[in-house]
Amino acid sequence: MITGPGLLFVVSGPSGAGKDTLVEGLREHRPSLRYSVSATTRAPRPEERDGEHYFFVSSADFERLRRDGGLLEWREYNGNLYGTPRDYIERSLTEGYDVIMKPEVNGALAVKVGYPDAVLIFLVPDRFSNLRERLLARRTETNEEIARRLEIAQQEMKFIRRFDYIVVNAQDRPQEAVRDLEAILQAERFRIHRYPDDSIRRVESS
Ligand code: 5GP
Q1: Which domain, by its residues, includes 54?
Q2: Atom 19 of ligand 1 has which residue's CA nearest to it?
Q3: Rounded to two decimals, what is the model's pTM?
């Protein structure tokens, strides 16, 4: 049997592009895919649960985690800190599980430095103006926060060429974007450089 370490998929893109919805949709199709829960100092939204959507931590706890090397990457975003716990990802990949995470754009690029094999996917709306509509519709941010997120989004769009894939999340058709994400996951699994050398040699001599 050909096996190897798991793959790390990084779904990024501006706030409001639909990362949460699409990653959730993808996980329903692929229950074995592990999701990396981030730590944040942001206050929970009403529907968010600790340990499921985020690990909601104090600034002091976040700082301790960061100082002890417990974070794979971390960033300040709109006045709050967000970071990816290292242990869970390392353990899951070693055990052969694929892992998905959804940091903002700078965090995604930082992951690629530590894990050059990570697959970076940039999620975009079909029109930039849809970002604003989505942020307004979810009613979780104030108008000022939305304006700030849109400013950040404009900056984030400049990094699109540093990613491996672009997926367009068309308004009202999220299932198409989920299908595209699945296609990427599927194809990446078969890339020749993913296979351990001894597996290839066994295939060659069989
Ligand atoms: P939100 O407050 O909307 O949940 O997240 C704000 C931004 O932070 C989003 O773009 C989200 O993808 C990003 N984010 C969430 N977790 C992490 C993380 O662990 N690291 C980084 N760099 N960004 C994160």
Answers
A1: 8-189
A2: 83
A3: 0.93
112 within a domain of the structure (yes/no) = yes
Quick check: is 195 in a domain?
no
**pLDDT of amino acid 141:** 87
Return the CATH number at 104. 3.40.50.300
Joined together, the tokens standing for residue 198 give 């001894």
pLDDT in tens, 43-60: 999 999 999 999 999 999
- 66-88, pLDDT tens digit by residue? 999 999 999 999 999 999 999 99
Is any ligand 1 atom within 6 A of the Cβ of residue 75? yes
Q: For position 172, what pLDDT does the model report?
A: 86
Number of domains in the chain: 1
Our mutation pick for probing the ligand 1 site, out of 65, 104, 105, 141, counting the most ligand atoms within 8 A of Cβ, is 104
Distance between CA atoms of residues 32 and 98, nearest Å: 8
Chain centre to alpha carbon of residue 24 = 11
pLDDT digits 0-9 by tens, 166-177 = 999 998 899 999
